[in-house]
Amino acid sequence: MGGLGRWKGPLRAWGAWIALASAASAAAPSPVRIADDRTGGYVRRALENARVRLADPSCRQLLSEFTDSSGRPLQDSLDALQQQPEEYLETLFFYDGSGLPDCRPAVAAATTRGSHVVLICAARFVRVPWPDGEVTLIHEMLHTLGLGENPPTSLEISRRVRMRCFDHDAQRKPSTR
Predict the structure, then answer these.
(1) pTM for the complete prediction?
(2) How do the domains of the chain map onto residue ranges?
(3) Architecture in CATH of 5-169
């Protein structure tokens, strides 16, 4: 759920710096950088469940269906990085965005195209039922790969994530909150 406006440049720079700093680290730190244990736990569980879903071929189809601003499939960006979607998801960083303008009441997370930083709107994120947290993280990952919004609308993006990654197999409900 994009629209970070004036934060776009600083978030990209911050995300690049964090990615470089983390790559230099010997131990792989958690990509979830949220101090609140409850919120951090929800995000970590949703992140792991989203990772599992992204390994599914049906879910991966999203990356060929959605395109960046130049019309290239998002899969091209992953191919250039030589990463699978579930691996790419692990390169993103999740911070508490509570109090920032984009964390409006109906927003669970926000990022901007090309950023490696996803802001979690804690008050909303911890209240969403399964699989909406996972849908939200995959939705935001698509934006980090270059997907814009309007068009497609935020609701359309989330609907397609749910359809490709969750609706075909509601029986496999992973760990819950």
Answers:
(1) 0.81
(2) 5-169
(3) 3-Layer(aba) Sandwich (3.40)
